[in-house]
């Protein structure tokens, strides 16, 4: 291997390690923000709400998706803002993926899911979010409302996974 190639390889490995370290630091920061933001919140079965973003994040494959998985409900369900995420050093592509999965005032279902489907990070996170919402172990006694929500979640999941062209 030539000296130039060794230098390129060394630089590439260092770049990958630096990016991985930076992304891991952002994942830790996202986890800290989610824990603080969801403190005291519980899910429909009375469990600490933080378990939901933890599971969604864990099920995601890439570090970026894991970061967004941790943050996927903080804008919608807490006082955290996009500016807060920027101030914490999250890059714009992470903030954009969080924005994609956030239901904002005046949202409509078709635009929301079309936006998610177009963003690979948001799509992976929302699929894992829906999968966790469909986990039957989370609720001991399902209500009629919950059963109806599960039907809706399955329809949304089919759309995001490409099995259906409509919601």
From TrEMBL:
Gene3D superfamilies: Hypothetical protein af1432 (1.10.3210.10). It comes from the Bacteria. This is HD domain-containing protein. It comes from [Bacteroides] pectinophilus ATCC 43243. One of its GO terms (molecular function) is guanosine-3',5'-bis(diphosphate) 3'-diphosphatase activity. InterPro entries: MESH1.
């Amino acid at each position: 291997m030539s000296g130039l190639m060794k230098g390129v390889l060394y630089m590439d490995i260092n770049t990958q390690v630096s990016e991985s370290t930076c992304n891991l630091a952002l994942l830790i920061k996202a986890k800290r923000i989610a824990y603080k933001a969801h403190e005291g919140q519980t899910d429909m079965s009375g469990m600490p709400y933080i378990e939901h973003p933890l599971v969604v994040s864990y099920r995601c494959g890439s570090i970026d998706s894991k970061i967004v998985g941790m943050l996927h409900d903080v804008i919608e369900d807490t006082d955290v803002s996009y500016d807060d995420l920027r101030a914490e050093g999250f890059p714009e592509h992470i903030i954009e993926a969080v924005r994609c999965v956030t239901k904002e005032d005046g949202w409509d279902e078709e635009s929301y899911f079309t936006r998610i489907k177009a963003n690979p990070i948001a799509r992976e996170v929302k699929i894992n979010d829906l999968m966790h919402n469909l986990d039957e172990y989370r609720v001991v006694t399902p209500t009629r409302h919950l059963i109806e929500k599960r039907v809706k979640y399955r329809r949304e999941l089919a759309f995001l996974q490409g099995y259906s062209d409509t919601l």
